[in-house]
Amino acid sequence: MNRIDQRFADLKAQGRRALIPYLTAGDPAPAHTVGFMHALVAAGADVIELGVPFSDPMADGPVIQKACERALKHGVRLADLFEMVREFREQDSETPVVLMGYLNPVERIGLDAFADQAVAAGVDGVLTVDMPPEEAEEFGPVLKARGLASIFLVAPTTSRERAATICAHGEGYLYYVALKGVTGAATLNAADVAEHLAPLRELTTLPLCVGFGIRDGASAAEVGRVADGVIVGSALVNRIAENVERPEAIPQALQAVLGEMRTALDALPPR
Amino acid sequence: MSKFSDLTRLPDIRGHFGPYGGRFVSETLSFALDDLAETYLRLRDDPDFQAEFDHDLAHYVGRPSPLYHAERWSKQLGGAQVWLKREDLNHTGAHKVNNTIGQALLAKKSGKPRVIAETGAGQHGVATATVAARLGLRCEVYMGAEDVERQKLNVYRMRLLGANVIPVESGTRTLKDAMNEALRDWVTNVDDTFYIIGTVAGPHPYPMLVRDFNAVVGREARRQSFEEFGRLPDALIACVGGGSNAMGLFYPFVEDDEVAMIGVEAGGDGVETGRHAAPLASGAPRGVLHGNRTYLMSDEGGQVSDTHSVSAGLDYPGVGPEHALWKDVGRVEYVAANDDAVLEAFRELTHVEGIMPALESAHALAHAKVLAPTMRPDQHIVVNLSGRGDKDIMTVAKIDGIEL
């Protein structure tokens, strides 16, 4: 079984919600990333989304744009990400790792080469922000053939018909984008999220995880009441940005943010 | 029967031009693009909508634009007769307004009170601000901070027209970054905002509808060719950044196999130096940016490359997907003109014909200078003079070492 499916099965058995942190690989420098990943797991991460830096991250707000710029200053490439995941796997063979990014870097090295190297490194899933399922006809089967999960986004603006298509193609978990906007934007509205998740439950048995606008324990708990997992990105990347001059302080700063969310989620009644 | 007839049936239902085009956007925008495609396909065949569009083109833009015989310049070049399609004479001074008139009508039909746009040289921004003023729509224009610096005149024009110009500080601070920021705005304000894209790129249906709104250029040029010299031209030349003016001129001639078409990209310091903006002529790899798959200048890691051109309007690392297909099937030849040759053509046309072209359009003229002398005096070339050069006076003066 894919590590992602295994992890969600375990969480379900325990009645717990998934906590999914996002980091841009190579931010603030490539040497730190693997250490940050272990720190996140120690603070309660269930799945790690590792961002592939891109020169033109059009779905991201200023926080993750700057993280990409910091990483790209070091010339971080997919080959470096694969090396990071390989190194992470030396000590952690259980925590699922999802690569999240844009299509161009992947197409540039080639879909098959990408998928082969991802599997060899120990990657479990791929979320390509600018590739809706209609455009995944070629890439989807390439990933599937190697047991890599294709993870897709659903937005507040997604029609029921499209949602059905996305659910049919999605694997691992469904990433519900909680608000209209870019990453790191305003705080989400939990009631609104609940309203949108209900119809998705009728379409899929995939775990429903919610991202965009979750910044602290309180907002994580609000979403955790209705979702199977919460995804947190900009709130963590902000801690990195604040500490670029003293990276040794970053692991603890990340753990403070994630730890608060873990506690808040685990205090909810079992699902 | 043309061997290129299949090209007129594109894009397919999902916006693909062969392997190019498509819709590579984050999920939030999918519904807005579905909605736009549906609205457009309905209105495209609606006689009332077409009549309104044609009326605006005639009475607001001033169409048809003349096809002018550059007799003196042709003699000087000593070969084919060169004809200039005078898009520079349109209201706002470039072909860009054909498209913004069309998209503003779509915005009006969709009831959205706010429009946004990206702009490089500022021509599309001005054309958008103009139609927004006329229709009473709120207008915000994203422009790379570097372009805001080098195109101050157009920035002030937009502000006078009531638009809010937002300098974009991210990335390389040019056109591609302005487009990123416009897409971020749209994804945030998608309920009340219509995004007026300025070129034949972006996610489906934009490449199709921007093409269709600009195709009036080629339809007129085709008719005028018969009126002026009794037959089809032997060659068409147009500059290509995103490629909207070239698309507009070329599209109605696609099935005329005997008409050669040449798209001229920005060669910058020279394609061989790497400092250019010529993804087609340089044979850049296939890539995905701003919602479509196309030829895209990027490094081995897939990061989008910096581009270089004396003309801000061509300073873009990608190109419209339909041009990418036309290159592959051999319908259009794509070449590059270097900054030096462009400036020479700019000066020459100004001196010899009293017409000051935009630096973008001067790329097409630079190639006409190469091509015309290889042809006979009874042959005809139509060059798209896509915009006027007033906006570039500061740039040229600076190159001349003159402070205005």
TrEMBL record, chain A:
InterPro entries: Aldolase_TIM, RibuloseP-bd_barrel, Trp_synthase_alpha_AS, Trp_synthase_suA
Pathway(s) it belongs to: Amino-acid biosynthesis; L-tryptophan biosynthesis; L-tryptophan from chorismate: step 5/5
Keywords, in A-Z order: Amino-acid biosynthesis, Aromatic amino acid biosynthesis, Lyase, Tryptophan biosynthesis
A GO molecular-function annotation: tryptophan synthase activity
Pfam families listed in its UniProt record: Trp_syntA (PF00290)
Record has Lyase as a keyword: yes
EC number(s) recorded for this UniProt protein: 4.2.1.20
Catalyzed reactions: (1S,2R)-1-C-(indol-3-yl)glycerol 3-phosphate + L-serine = D-glyceraldehyde 3-phosphate + L-tryptophan + H2O
Highest taxon listed in the record's lineage: Bacteria
A single cellular component GO annotation: cytosol
Positions annotated as active site in the UniProt record: 49, 60
Protein function: The alpha subunit is responsible for the aldol cleavage of indoleglycerol phosphate to indole and glyceraldehyde 3-phosphate.
Similarity remark: Belongs to the TrpA family.
Classification via NCBIfam families: trpA
Subunit structure: Tetramer of two alpha and two beta chains.
UniProt cross-references to HAMAP family, sorted A to Z: Trp_synth_alpha
Record protein name field: Tryptophan synthase alpha chain
Species of the source: Billgrantia gudaonensis
Gene from which the chain derives: trpA
UniProtKB/TrEMBL annotation, chain B:
GO cellular component, one term: cytoplasm
N6-(pyridoxal phosphate)lysine sites (modified residues): 96
UniProt cross-references to InterPro entries, sorted A to Z: Trp_synth_b_CS, Trp_synth_beta, Trp_synth_beta/beta-like, TrpB-like_PALP, TrpB-like_PALP_sf
Metabolic or biological pathway: Amino-acid biosynthesis; L-tryptophan biosynthesis; L-tryptophan from chorismate: step 5/5
Keyword line: Amino-acid biosynthesis, Aromatic amino acid biosynthesis, Lyase, Pyridoxal phosphate, Tryptophan biosynthesis
Every Tryptophan synthase beta chain-like PALP domain range: 62-387
EC code: 4.2.1.20
Gene3D superfamilies in UniProt: 3.40.50.1100
Regions crossing the membrane: none
Catalyzed reactions: (1S,2R)-1-C-(indol-3-yl)glycerol 3-phosphate + L-serine = D-glyceraldehyde 3-phosphate + L-tryptophan + H2O
Family membership noted in the UniProt record: Belongs to the TrpB family.
Function: The beta subunit is responsible for the synthesis of L-tryptophan from indole and L-serine.
Subunit relationships: Tetramer of two alpha and two beta chains.
Protein name per UniProt: Tryptophan synthase beta chain
Annotated source species: Billgrantia gudaonensis
